[in-house]
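Open question from group meeting: does this chain pack into something compact, or does most of it stay loose? Before anyone orders reagents, we agreed to write out a predicted structure and look at it together. Recording both the input and the output here so the notebook holds the full record.
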Amino acid sequence: MKNLYFILFCIIACQATCLAQSTGRVTGKVNDAEGLPMAGANILILETGTGTATDSAGDFSFTDLRAGRITLKISFVGYADVVENLKIKANSTNEITIKLSIRPIAGDEVVITSSRRPEKITRAPATISVISASDLEESASFNPAELLSKIQGVEFVRTGVNSISINARGFNSAFNTKILQMTDGRNSMLAGANGLPPGMMNTVVKEDIERLEIVLGPNSALYGPNAHNGIFNTITKDPRKYQGTTVALTAGNQQVFSGRFRHATKINEHWAYKVTGEYTTGKDFNFKDSVYAGGGVYGPAVVIPERISSYQFKYIKGEAHLFYNFTPRSYAALTYGRSNSTYLNVTNLTRNYQQDWIFTFLQGRFVTPHLFVQFYQTWADAGKSFGVASYTRDFWNRTHSTITDPANPAFAATGYLAPDQAEEYAMRVGNVFKENSKRLNSEIQYNYDFEHAGLFLIASATYQKDEPDTYGSILVDKVQKVDITQYGAALQLEKTLPGDVKFTAAARIDHHSLFGEMFSPKFGLVKGIGSGAMRLTWGRAFAAPIILFQRASVFGLIFGNGNGVKYIPNGANTNDPAAITKTTPLSPEQINTWELGYKGKVTKKIYVDVNAYYGKSKNFLSPAISVGGRTVSVGDFPIETNTLLFPGTVTNSGILNGAAFSTYFNYGEVSSYGADAGLNYYANSKISIALKYSWFGSDITSENIKNDANKDGYVAVDERSLNAPKNRIMGSISIQDLLHSKVFCNISARWVQQFDMYSGSQIGTREGKGKRGMVYGGKNPINDQPRYYAKNFDWGPIGGFTTFDISAGYKVSELMSLNGSISNAFNTKQIEFVASPSIGRLYSVELKVNVAAKNKKPGSL
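Structure tokens returned:
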């Protein structure tokens, strides 16, 4: 590793000292549609991130530009972006005049995520959508993820006032890691045991987001394992481009209050910085899941509500960024971010109360026109987080135990405790999570444009080392630590062909210290048709099981299957060593997907985005699936019987009955297919209408024995569930620039088809509503008796609702704006995930003050 750092240091030093001396210049003017100069318009060189703003006369300039081709993006809030491609010649000046039109039109956006280079969205070889800064400006919510409900192809999931997650192309679960979340090129998934998306724990504040890019489909070829079903990339505002101070205050029902700020300054020709911060608090919906307690020495078996003392959520977060420009086209940046989060969170087993969970990162980047290098460390501290169900059950059991004599040998483990003592017992390690984990990432990327050959090349190498440390509270790492190393290399070639055709091919190979090598190729053809383009792509992607799936030991119920779980099946003799069975260890899931799509304008007023896909998964990764038996060990790590939640009972002859645990499995093969369609109609410069539809299907619903995940000889319903609606529809009307461009109004509706869902022990079905979840697992081959797997309480099916959202805003002045929004305006019953409350009506108002910085010297970076 030291040698790798030394090589990277030499490359950086060479690039920083050997930049070409021959330079050119660009000057320009930005006007509005009426020819009037626009002060404060942003101009960005996409290849380098260098930016400036126009002065009071609408003028800007860049000096000391290296000879070659550059791409300028000119933008202003509320206006359509303009992209200009220029060829810079040594000792010469390019003079341009730009005219901006009000409001961005779909299809004009420039994106970077799909190909790791700037390109117009209609020419990207992927299904990609964008949420822009202007979209965020019109949202009164503190949570930018709310806007994802309006993106086609995205399965939007809300489990509380503050908790939002996304999925794509079915098979959702509480521990879904098949969409890679990134921020400014950094893997922003949580470090440590779970590796889950950060959600609101992310340190980015809404006012610092330039845009969100959502890419659907397999992308492992460029981004590595777990860019499986897509990428959600957050791109923040560069302080050299977006300067000034923004303060925003949001208030709403459920006691919501959010205060946020962003301040960015360009100090001089070399230095710039920005700082952001947020304090958000509120109260989640009053919902208590059912917990099963009692039995044996604890009295009769009972069903009790979760013991929840507080529904408050709170987020304290912030970032600090420091930029240094070596030249106008090369810079270094150092970023630090930290968040402290408290909220209720749904899992595969129960709900957790994430209390004072701390997410931290430190990132360093070096960027030139051809070279990108970054190192970053991510930390996770679980704080005082705990499992609500296990805490509830232990408190109940110990306060209802029939063993009251301290002299009884069983008293220490199961005897009666007073409430204060029971509280302390229920909050012990095991119910309370303990974690101090970290992850190290590094990346080097090189690109070169063979302009005369019409060929563009990107080569990259990455390294990742995970060092989880849960002290045995989440993983089997109490005795021996679990370290996971991954490294890989990728190459992408992009070739321009005659007839306005672009061919893209990429390949990546990764090595995982547990799962070995993974090879991910991809290719795409994009054919320009008028103002749009047709695309055909094929790609292979991998989803490596997260560390939790590999080494879990949670609540004595869910165990990791990275090296197999040894167990004694129900009906077998516990005294017979030959009865011990081992599950088949996990392998990475592999998916091969074909996609065909078109994105572009079909008339001057109509823009469409349609795509269809077909994917074939091998070693499909299941949610946590129940197994009838008593766990003996996770890999080579023994599990004590007295720590098991369902250890079962043993007859006088040694026969085991009623034992159960859950773990993760690979299916044989699963096909999935679907289509997404979006239509935007621009009636005039003020009114636009959008309609979006998604359909999803899979052969997993068949009772094919290949889908017997836990190998019990029967394909149960939880092994053949889509865990997603087959159909979804969203429509919206947007009215802009009323009353001299001061007022806007948006109205949207969303319909989600009803469906059954299984996520580990959580269950939500039409048939089982109002009862304890029970899944029939066929007959036990040992004793030929019917076999049932117990789940948690069944609150009924998911989806089956139509909701309406309304938002509006008023621009009080150049400095101040006032927005308001209502989500689920008619208070419709809206359940989007198992073991979650119905999301009732939510409303909020936002006051924002934005003070732009004065230009020190246009174009001087």
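Observations to bring back to the group:
The first strand starts at residue 23 and ends at 31.
The chain has a mean pLDDT of 89.
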